[in-house]
Amino acid sequence: SHAQLESLIAQARESDAEAQRERRRLHEVFDASPYLVLVTEGASHLIRFATPAAYNVFRSSPALIGQPLAKAYPEFAESGYVQLFSRVYETGEPLTGREIALTNRRWGDAVRYFDYTFQPMRCEQGQITGVIAHGIEVTDKVMARRRLEQALRARDDFVSLVAHELRNPLNVLQLQIASTTARLNSPIEPFSTSTMRQRLAAMDKTMTLLSRELDRLLDVSRMVNKPIKLDLQPFDLSSLAEEVIDGMAAETRGCETILEREGSEFLVTWDRQRIAELISNLLSNAYKYGAGKPVLLRLEGSTESIRLEVRDGGAGIPAADLQRIFERFEQAQDRPRDSFGGLGIGLWMCRQIAAAHGGRIRVESALASGSRFIAELPRDVKK
Question: What is the mean pLDDT of residues 188-202?
């Protein structure tokens, strides 16, 4: 009847409307999803469906619908991934890939990583008609893992370095103790009081070296975890420089130390102990790499600031290393630790101390031309 016909038409329209609503909801889900979904058809892998996340990777638009995958995304074909679609299409066996590296000319040199699954798409009769690929970007996870691996390698290298650096004075101390014990137990050559004092002094010097290195490592740990707390007090920088030079007389490795001053007023309000560390670290660095040539410590004062410069005549530093040497546990690559020793923390500490005083430190150097380390600090530092 006419009423039944109208009822059927209404039901059909309602079904149509419901189908449209379902499609819209489905599109909304795909639009908000971070997953990449790509559906291809036939042996040529014509693209029939792609989510916005897939458009983003392809750096394309819905206009790619109907295009062959190899044409829509040439890098995908160049990397051999289109062959994976062909394999799934021909065999019907799904494939899974982890951390697949993708590039795109529009990304420049950037590489992004994805976990992917390729599955066959079948018709009602069970025949393969295409491929469904879905995946998710895992670039952040890959980069985080690589940073962790790098940190672990750095930790292992540092532990090995510390063990090597502390082992040397420990070996010396063990030899000193063993030889002294042997002499004390020998009835033939008893120790004189003066000899015993010399041996004890040598052992004390070795212990002092060990304690200083351990204190430096603890100091680095404190600097990393919280800002340096300065003990500000007025003092004469020129007098402090002379004290530091005198105190390092046994560490010069044959380098003459020259102290120059420009200006007559070097009264500053700084942390005296920290500034002494800065000067001694810079001088120690100059002595290590100065090739026995004179080392210059120059103080230059102005109304507002003080410029402190340490210059050596050594091999110099390659341009590529000029910034890296201020990082923790770093040394210039052409300066082997076996030759010069050290934990690679002195210059990093200098930078932290200079920054805590509101100043900065930099280096000027070139191969075969020596190095100039320049620290510039305000004359008065406010708490």
Answer: 77
Taking the alpha carbons of 214, 218, 219, 223 in that order, is the dihedral positive or negative?
positive
**Residue type at position 373:** F
DSSP 257-303: EEEEEESS--EEEEEHHHHHHHHHHHHHHHHHHSTT--EEEEEEE-S
Going by their DSSP bridges, the two strands 95-102 and 371-378 should be labelled as unpaired
Q: Which residue has the higher pLDDT, 52 or 84?
A: 84
The total number of residues written for the chain in this structure: 383
Report d(CA 362, CA 375) in Å as an integer: 7
Within a 13 Å sphere around the CA of 349, how many CA atoms are in the beta-carbon half?
A: 25
CA distances from residue 76 to 54, 91, 108 in whole angstroms, order as listed: 12, 20, 15
Question: Each residue of 263-273: pLDDT tens digit?
Answer: 878 999 999 99
What is the value of pTM for the model shown? 0.53
Residue 351 structure tokens: 């930078």
**C-beta neighbour count of 251 within 10 angstroms:** 12
Distances (CA, A) of 199 to 44, 183, 187, 192, 204: 86, 11, 18, 11, 9
